Amino acid sequence: MSLAGLFNNRWPGVALFDLDGTLVDSAPDLAAAVDQMLEHLGRTPAGLDKVRNWVGNGSAVLVRRALAGRIDWEPAEAKDDALFNDAMAIFYHCYGQHNGRHARVFDGVEECLEHLKGLGCRLAIVTNKPDQFVAPLLEQTGLDKWFELAVGGDTLPVKKPDPAPLLHAMEKLGGTPGTTVMVGDSAADVNAALAASIPCVAVRYGYNFGGSVDSLGADAVVDSLAELL
Ligand SMILES: O=C(O)COP(=O)(O)O
Ligand SMILES: [Mg+2]
């Protein structure tokens, strides 16, 4: 499906983009920070392949997964608040140093953003990444020039898969569900879009817990954002 189809040919529209795993391959920097945090706590580093699959539900969940050593940490394991608080503080400190260092923009992203801008679209980021890391990463990768708004993981009291961050960005940019599209890489993105009644494109190359995005219920699934042009 083309973007024009998703927008019902009603231009200009609003396009909302997830950040990690959709626009930017940030997993190497996140993994470096997670591993430094684990080593600091006397734990074994997790490595890039594991950490990549733990990204997408915000930093607190990433740190919980890292402390548990697996994706499906049990709420019962979330009792040790002192350890968790230490781990969060160390992770924030380390990620602040690594953020943007090895991150690279995925192929097809710049072409897609340029095309949408040319059509008069208004563009926003809607990410679960903590607010303080969003602007530095956008600047570092040169993506900041395309976006007039960024909603981060703590802009609102709730994160994706709650629909509120998408609706907030959509309303700020004057969109309606019929003239807005969400583009993301994970179940959190697709479920937020479904709950907001906003059409959704999912990318296959991102961080969807190692699973397939084809069965999440997105309106279109692509291997590159260039496919949408
Ligand atoms: O920090 C995260 O969990 C990643 O955020 P995003 O995939 O929503 O951009
Ligand atoms: Mg993502």
Automatic annotation (TrEMBL):
Q: Could you name the active-site residues?
A: 18
Full protein name: Phosphoglycolate phosphatase
What are the names of the required cofactors? Mg(2+)
In the record, biological process GO terms are: carbohydrate metabolic process; DNA repair; glycolate biosynthetic process
* Record InterPro entries: HAD-like_hydrolase_sf (IPR050155), HAD-like_sf (IPR036412), HAD-SF_hydro_IA (IPR006439), HAD_sf (IPR023214), PGP-like_dom2 (IPR023198), PGPase_prok (IPR037512)
Q: Which Gene3D superfamilies match?
A: HAD superfamily/HAD-like, Putative phosphatase, domain 2
Q: What does this protein do?
A: Specifically catalyzes the dephosphorylation of 2-phosphoglycolate. Is involved in the dissimilation of the intracellular 2-phosphoglycolate formed during the DNA repair of 3'-phosphoglycolate ends, a major class of DNA lesions induced by oxidative stress.
Top-level division of the source organism's lineage: Bacteria
